[in-house]
Design goal:
CATH class: Alpha Beta
CATH topology: Beta-Lactamase
CATH architecture: 2-Layer Sandwich
Strand content: 15-25%
Number of strands: 6
Number of domains: 1
Strand order of the largest sheet: 3-2-1-6-5-4
Structural class: alpha+beta
Helix content: 25-40%
Shape: globular
Oligomer: single chain
Largest sheet: 6 strands, antiparallel
Radius of gyration: 21 Å
Distance between the termini: 66 Å
């Protein structure tokens, strides 16, 4: 963790920073693939950094529609949720009792990290040959900027301490993002103004 954090803080370039973050998280967790996924203003996403096993097909620069991650799921991530599913192939277990005996209402599992998985989510990942996932939110204020998404082709158990470390690292990456995104935008504007200043008026004959 300390080595990863120290390395990340030395990288001013956004692309290098995110790639180093993906590599660092993969080294830390041992997942087969770690991706950093960024949302645009319309909610569509793209994989902008990736660290993976060499034999796996790359997902880097793939784009996904906004419907790929439904709004209710994105809302959960906006609240800083870390989602961990150690085995997508496991049989769901019923909650006992089904209703809270005090309130007589179903238990609210919204923020339960180890709650069961929607069948659509299971099928989606199984089609990608994924058996275990770990996902952490990258928030900028109230905005969900992106996700750190970790995939493993077999079931994978990681400790509570490891999940806490991943959540801490995700928070650090999110806090560093603000400065690096602002720097990237400033550099883009500076380059754009430089190009504009190089343009000279065109004189047309007869004018």
């Amino acid at each position: 963790m300390n080595q990863t954090i120290a390395q990340l803080r030395r990288l001013p370039d956004l692309a290098e920073f995110l790639q180093a973050a993906a590599v660092g998280i993969r080294v830390l967790t041992g997942f087969d693939r770690v991706m950093i996924y960024r949302f645009d203003a319309q909610g569509a996403g793209a994989v902008i950094a990736e660290a993976k096993r060499e034999d796996l097909a790359p997902y880097l620069e793939l784009h996904y529609p906004a419907t790929d991650i439904p709004e209710p799921v994105r809302e959960l991530y906006r609240r800083g949720l870390l989602r961990y599913i150690p085995d997508l192939n496991t049989r769901p277990i019923a909650l006992i009792p089904a209703e809270n005996p005090v309130t007589q209402q179903p238990a609210d599992l919204e923020r339960a990290i180890l709650r069961s998985v929607d069948p659509c989510c299971v099928e989606y990942h199984q089609n990608m040959d994924v058996a275990a996932i770990l996902v952490a939110a990258l928030n900028q204020g109230e905005t969900l900027w992106g996700l750190i998404s970790c995939h493993h082709q077999r079931s994978k158990t990681i400790s509570y301490e490891m999940r806490e470390s991943c959540e801490l690292l995700a928070q650090l990456i999110a806090s560093e993002l603000a400065n690096k995104v602002n720097t990237e935008e400033l550099n883009y504007l500076t380059k754009l103004r430089s190009l504009q200043s190089d343009l000279s008026p065109i004189d047309f004959p007869g004018e």
